[in-house]
């Protein structure tokens, strides 16, 4: 098998026929070597295994910054505690039932002093008569001065309890997740662009080692600021891996299985969420919890250095000898004989994010795709944060939250393969918009219906959000594919940052968040109908091919032109 650049230019007819054959040659690799045989299966499951780490690190902060019940500490040994009609001999016995915003805890020390303890202040009773919960006398009120007693029933040790991130420092704890999301945004853009320039494998290796190293380093953070910086870098690495792995598995699997292989990367992310819940339930010390989560996928590091570069990237960079070696390896591993004799040559261009807007058609496509990324993330978090509190065990709730995502990906896969990407994405967004509108008109006393509509909206948004990764890969050519996914992921993170502020608008009007999401989802769903369908089409390698999606001549006309070219030749 020999890979050569196209022969010297001959007559126009012969050149056009050859160009038509070359357009299909890259996808024909999978027809010859298998769409998902042993070689691709080994790479896929290894790459997806590491994607579990992304779900882990994205959700790890749920328990890292968990704030347990707490009150001010007082000098002296406490002998008696009152909380309304409850009595105890230590704060540890009462704290599990203590609720923020309710009355204080009243304690009596061995020295005879009586204190009223709240979360961020304490009051010393002056000349009390007897020991009772109610007191109308004078009190000396003061702040806690960094002395707190925490409830260790649910969380034995978190960064909140270690560094007292409560009261006037509470905002520091709340800043952890937005800072992480900022790192995700930066990582998606930086690594997406870099992967298009230096290769997918180098980025996968680098981000995998960074996830392990930075994940463990977070556990040994000496103070809050080191913790935040390390988590920011960890977010960049996790985001970079997640963006590139979608492109990697897409470029190594044929179009017959591409829908399933892409969507089930999301399933791996959901598994990561369930791992967080299980680990959080079993380990209640934050730094041990962080170490265990970081080493969950460490076996991947033993063999990720053997990952090959994708044939699409190699040919886009005109590395034909490397492509030849790779195809021979795939054929040998799959027990097949590769009969591909000639692959197209392509001139390498230095592209940037501006090339996503290289024409009016591509600019419109990019704006629509970015909007889908944005509303997918915004809608997902608004539905999640605005849903009725399930109550019960928080670890079980998080586990279920990850598990319920799996059916949406299954249904999304079935629909994408049968009716197409566009005809799945657009109706899903329209359904989410309609569900939001119906929530607004549901009577307040019919909570079951409101919850059902909320779950319907979340389910529909999850389908659209799940398929946009693959759809983006198929809408853009090899030379700019990772950058397209990376920039889309950046818009996704913008949505996740905006979502909490959108939820806060419920203070203005209880249904305002749903109204905003509903209007945006409906409008973007209509715009999605203008995107080209990519089901069953080969991945494009040039901007010209990508721009022509949805505007190709019919197969009948195309076949007639081919016959004419062959006659002329």
Automatic annotation (TrEMBL):
Top-rank taxon, per record: Eukaryota
Principal cellular location given in the protein's record: membrane
Membrane topology: Multi-pass membrane protein
GO cellular component: membrane
Signal peptide from the UniProt entry: none
Residue stretches making up the Major facilitator superfamily (MFS) profile domain: 122-536
Keywords: Membrane, Transmembrane, Transmembrane helix
InterPro entries xrefs: MFS_dom, MFS_sugar_transport-like, MFS_trans_sf
Transmembrane intervals: 41-60, 171-191, 203-222, 228-249, 261-281, 287-308, 369-388, 394-412, 424-442, 448-471, 483-506, 512-531
Alphabetical list of Pfam families matching this protein: Sugar_tr (PF00083)
Single GO MF descriptor: transmembrane transporter activity
Compartments, as annotated in UniProt: Membrane
Record-given protein name: Major facilitator superfamily (MFS) profile domain-containing protein
Organism: Anabas testudineus
Gene name per UniProt: SLC22A16
């Amino acid at each position: 098998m020999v890979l050569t650049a196209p022969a010297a230019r001959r007559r126009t007819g012969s050149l056009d026929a050859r160009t038509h054959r070359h357009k299909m040659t890259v996808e024909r690799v999978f027809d010859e070597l298998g769409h998902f045989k042993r070689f691709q299966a080994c790479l896929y499951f290894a790459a997806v295994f590491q994607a579990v780490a992304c779900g882990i690190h994205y959700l790890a902060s749920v328990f890292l910054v968990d704030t347990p019940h707490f009150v001010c500490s007082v000098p002296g040994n406490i002998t008696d505690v009152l909380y309304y009609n409850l009595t105890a001999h230590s704060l540890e016995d009462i704290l599990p039932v203590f609720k923020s915003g309710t009355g204080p805890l009243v304690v009596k020390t061995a020295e005879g002093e009586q204190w009223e303890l709240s979360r961020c202040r304490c009051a010393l009773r002056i000349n009390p008569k007897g020991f009772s919960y109610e007191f109308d006398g004078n009190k000396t009120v003061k702040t806690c001065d960094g002395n707190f007693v925490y409830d260790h029933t649910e969380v034995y040790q978190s960064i909140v309890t270690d560094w007292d991130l409560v009261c006037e420092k509470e905002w520091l704890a709340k800043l952890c997740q937005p800072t992480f999301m900022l790192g995700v945004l930066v990582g998606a853009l930086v690594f997406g662009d870099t992967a298009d320039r230096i290769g997918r494998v180098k980025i996968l290796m680098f981000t995998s080692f960074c996830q392990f190293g930075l994940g463990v380093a977070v556990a040994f953070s000496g103070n809050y600021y080191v913790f935040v910086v390390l988590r920011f870098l960890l977010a960049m690495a996790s985001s970079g891996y997640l963006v590139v792995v979608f492109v990697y598995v897409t470029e190594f699997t044929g179009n017959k299985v591409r829908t399933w292989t892409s969507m089930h990367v999301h399933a791996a992310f959901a598994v990561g969420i369930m791992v967080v819940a299980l680990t959080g339930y079993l380990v209640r010390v934050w730094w041990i919890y962080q170490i265990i989560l970081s080493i969950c996928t460490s076996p991947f590091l033993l063999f990720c250095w053997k990952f090959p570069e994708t044939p699409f990237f190699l040919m886009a960079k005109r590395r034909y000898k490397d492509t030849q070696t790779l195809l021979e390896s795939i054929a040998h591993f799959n027990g097949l004989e590769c009969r591909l004799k000639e692959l197209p040559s392509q001139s390498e261009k230095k592209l940037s994010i501006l090339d996503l807007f290289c024409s009016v058609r591509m600019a419109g496509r990019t704006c629509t795709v970015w909007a889908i990324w944005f509303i997918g993330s915004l809608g997902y978090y608004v539905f999640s944060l605005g849903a009725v509190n399930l109550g019960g065990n928080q670890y079980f709730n998080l586990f279920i939250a990850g598990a319920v995502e799996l059916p949406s990906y299954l249904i999304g896969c079935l629909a994408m393969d049968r009716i197409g990407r566009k005809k799945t994405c657009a109706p899903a967004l329209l359904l989410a918009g309609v569900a939001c509108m119906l929530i607004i008109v549901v009577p307040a006393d019919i909570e079951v219906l409101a919850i059902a509509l909320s779950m319907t909206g979340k389910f529909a948004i999850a389908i659209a959000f799940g398929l946009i990764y693959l759809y983006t890969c198929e809408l853009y050519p090899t030379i700019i594919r990772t950058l397209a996914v990376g920039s889309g992921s950046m818009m996704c993170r913008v949505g996740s940052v905006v979502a909490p502020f959108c939820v806060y608008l419920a203070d203005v009007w209880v249904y305002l968040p749903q109204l905003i999401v509903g209007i945006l989802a409906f409008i973007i769903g209509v715009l999605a109908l203008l995107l080209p369908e990519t089901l069953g089409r080969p991945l494009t390698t040039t901007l010209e091919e990508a721009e022509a999606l949805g505007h190709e001549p019919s197969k009948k006309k195309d076949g007639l032109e081919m016959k004419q070219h062959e006659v002329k030749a």
